[in-house]
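The record is given unchanged here:
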Amino acid sequence: MSNSSEMPKTPIQPHAVTAGEVVPGDLVALSQEEVERQQWCVVMHTLPESPGTIRVTLRPPLGGIDREAVLAREQQVVVAGRRVDEAAVPAVSSPRLDAVRFRDGDRVTRLRAVDPEGVEVTYERRWGVWHRDLDDRTGETVSDDVVRGWAADADRAGYVVRHHSRPAREPSWAGPRRVVVTGLGAMTPLGVGVDELWRGLLDGRHGIRELEGEEFQELPVRVAGVVPVDPAMLLPRAAARRMNRAAQFAVLAAREAWGDAGFATGGTRESGLDPERVGVSLGAILGDASVLVGGDRKLRDKGPRGVSPLTTPMTVPSQAASQVSLDLHITGEARTVTSACASGTEAIGEAIDRIRYGRVDVALAGGAEAVITPAIMASFASMRALSDLGLDGGATPSRPFAKDRAGFVNGEGAGVLVLEAEEHARARGARIYCEAAGWGLSADAHHMAAPDPSGSGVALALRRAVRDAGGHVVDVVHVNAHATATVEGDLAEAGALRAVLGEGEGRGGGAGSSASAGGGVPVTALKGNLGHLQGAAGGVEAVAAVLTLHNRLVPPTLGCAELDEEIGLDVVTGAPRTLPADGDLVLSNSFGFGGHNAVLALRRVA
């Protein structure tokens, strides 16, 4: 219910008259106190009661129940200087809601009907609480008991309260398909496989090491997140020779994810899948920069004949995606996304859409990178982007959100998810980790390397991811932050998270938590454990975000011994924390040089 279309728009100009002068259609207040409270009634009828009194029937101007008052003819009342068509004012009563069983998705509307300028306010129930704005975490919320109290008191207080049950789902045409995660694979500085990654995160270990090669000795920074095994040793020798290091990581992570999803070793044909209905979508910035560097060195040392014919195909960033498609005989598509450090997350988002709209039924998606080379390390050091804290005492030099953070640590690895159309996964009885519910992109348009300090581009990507997932901000229960441990980058991301998720006390609590004045959503950052895996970061962090939802456990942020007070987020530190139950969306953030912003939204599957 809203303002009656018959209600005049002329301003209210109160003036006193006697009760004997009022007529039907007058807008009246019986006292000056009612005028000050904007509490008016429409005169519906007047009848003589006695020679000195009249009986008036009054109704709230925006609808409600009638009440009668006997007034002395000479009694002073206030009229609004506004006439109303009394026949257009509805007679309504607010039903009691004591016996109604509320469900999430129900709406309640509340209108202060005695105020001619009253506006109907809508509350929607989500996670057992009524929200006035589902996209404002710090906005007004009320309980079921309060809503029932509104309804019980509405007629007396001059309100109209209506309950609208959650609409039943109507059969409709087949729209975008739901996408789920059924398999996970990873190669990271914490070790080989997803189990090593997850245990290392929960245990608070890091995989950052000193670079021992002679070519690194003159560099000002010589630490990086290095995968602790040679991936070539885990592959057949002939196959490994034709892959760059990033592609080797990608193939090993893809094989693990493929098997974790319940598919047969070997690939699509062995699994009984149509290879044309399966795709690959991987992110990479450079892939493996060492191949090009090595080719140039051989050219100088040995001349043209010393350069391998494999140099070019092993240099291109798309080699990881092509090698995964070759290894598992995937012919549907093999795409590569290159958008700086947002590459892995954007590649997953692209795969979600390819499945949603029927282009493929299954996709391996994530990122792979191997860019720990002297030139790239030197370049990052020249930018003053690398941490120079070293490995003293075994502490991680990568310290996201910490007061003493000093820059990021370069890293390498791969993280791959198996995504499937839900009906495809359920038809084969697959184990489902969670829903890949949506994603969001934006661009800062600010600087070639520095983040926009306002965080507005990041905030746009966050909102778009939540909206694409069909959710609301109040549904967000955890954020896996990009947080590279650069001073400006962490502040920009934190500001964006506060702008979108609101400020307030954290909801989580629990062992090892470090709640501050903002956010209210548990936030964790993994680069203290891993370093910054560049184009692979989004894939590996998506794997961790999936496991956070699936296991309902948030890993702590390593290296954040003292939270920078300007961050203003509920950063989980010290020990894992149980994932709060009053939400179902987890966001995984990735941001890259040039202002590339990508956010993945994952939803808990009941």
